[in-house]
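Pair request: fold both.
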Amino acid sequence: MLDVAIVGAGPVGATLALALAGHELDVVAIDARAAGATLRQDRTLALSHGSRLTLERLGVWTELEAAGGAVTPIIEIDVSQARGFGAATLAAAMQSLPALGYVVSYVALQRALDAALVRAGVTVRFGTTAARVRGTPADAQVTVADGGEAIHARLAVVADGAGTTIDGIVRARHDYGQVALVGEVTLDPPRPGIAYERFTSDGPIALLPERDHHGLVWTMRPEIAEAMLALPERSFLEGLAHHFGTRVTGFAHATGRRAFPLVLERARPIVAARAAVIGNAAQQLHPVAGQGFNLGLRDAWELAQTILDAPRDAIGGGPMLAAYAARRRADRDAGIAFTHGLVRIFGNDLPLVRWSRGLALAFLDVVPPAKRAFTRAMLHGLH
């Protein structure tokens, strides 16, 4: 019997597998994709400084940086709101760090993690899809789709999003009634290393520096997104410039426009008999403030430490899983509340609320201890 079976060898599942490698545990990851492939097209990921430290511990960061153009440092974040005063600038220099975070290519990160799994000797069964995870007092049973044999382990960890049914775990879903319109935007002149977060009555807009352009994440209602996607490039850029006002100018080009729905999904609980969920399988967040992916990497790292702290025959047992759930509670609850709260607070366009937001942003910008505390939370999590 295996010690740990990991469903999903994407970035979060691979992080868990690598953190367990070299500790004399029998670990197998299964993944629906073919070896060397990715299940998703390339997209922009915002990694916090804390996530960089995790990838450095796993021996992945150096290889990722060596992949030309795969990593772009964020040295400054400009936060503002439309139709109101108040703005704040967060700078890496204030934390004595080279960067506040990093914009990373999803495909490049997956390739670097896949290579690290090979180096570490972790077994990955590609082309294998899990249909269900069922826990018994003795073991976890991972049922493989298409009539494959069940995989037995002391602990099954689901890291593949919402695609696998886990007995004893349900997912609560909140539909924001919005979509994220994403794409690549070129500014003239360029603003290397500067990220922008702009809050509007329609929802937040983010520009993340990536190589010679910025990745765009623009929240809006589905019918508006449909109309914006149909616009010619120049008209689209004019609409984007209108929402940013004078905070960002010089929108020159836009490519790769597409949209996807925005929801908050939360697993309840995050552990069950012989099973745990991490990453998007545990929580899928609104992209505002870029918390979701980093929260998932912390899930993986903390679960690995909890497993390694337990005797081998206690892996997957009730006390070990309870310890993991307790270990993650504060960070997870705070991350979900922070992201959901930002959407609610900045989505309200009443004058009094807009004035209060502006006052809070102005306070954050001029009070160094508050700014440092806020920035530390963005770098390392909110626990």
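--- second member of the pair ---
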Amino acid sequence: MTVTHDIDLAKMIADTEAEILRVVGERDGATSGVYEMIRYHLGLDGVDGPRGKRMRPLLGLLAYASIAGDHAAALPGAAAVELGHNFSLVHDDIEDGDVERRHRPTLWAVHGVAQAINTGDLIFSLSRVALHRLSDLGFSDAKVLRLMRLYDETCVLLCEGQYIDIATSAQDEPMTVELYFDMIGRKTAALIAASIEAGALLATDDEEVVGRYRRFGWSLGLAFQLNDDLLGIWGEEQTTGKVPTDLVRHKKTLPVLYAFEHATPADRQRLVALHAKADPDGAEVAEIVAILERAGADTFTRSEARRHRDAALAELDALAVVDPAAREKLAGIITSVISA
């Protein structure tokens, strides 16, 4: 008989943030400033602090709850995932030269590069510390060690993906579409897959179930990134909450890379010239969009996003162990964040 549990997403997020604050905490003395920086970056420095959607820890908690019921025992893993994600964001902001995140100055823009690098390193270390509380909650040493291995392997993939991103950005020729999929697999899909796999690992020893959750997360991660690529060019500000500025910022996302490979020679030459402009105006951005659409870049990207979204849903549908309420929430997240 299937037992359905109440699934409260807002409570899951609030509990995750409380678990993060348990790790970060209020520190006194000479080091209190660095913990204030962490809370600032996480948006936990005030009631109305700007925060991310906490999607990665939420997905992990839903995976755990879909098998085991109440999510509370998996909270240390959720905190570790969110801290791990955010250490990379602190470093990304420095590497990309971004001075704003979530509508306020980035950490390095406020405190300088040296302090931001150190704070990012500390966030990474605290993400490991967060996992140790799983032992206090009764999980076996073998289970905790396996989770740490998963986490470490995911961080390796994340750094490898960032290397590809930085290295190809320094080259005149754009990366291939094939390499782009490799990069986003490491940078985006790996972390989402690991978040979901971690929740399943804590809830069951059934390797087939764990494998399906990981494949679900991998497909979801790819679909999420491709959908973001679409919104960065064709999204509407009132829908996404942000102006679609990927072309103004010269971001070579999938639609642009596809157009470089499939546009006519004349369109490709014009696309190269337009991308070389430091600050393209509205008419020039509109011309880039027209070139992308003539090359079929929007259609291809949307088709790929839908393909990976449907693959994620298929993995979810194949999981007989999933609590119906949790399944509904997981499917709801997929359809709400992936509009392709």
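Observation on the second member. The two ends are 36 Å apart (CA to CA).
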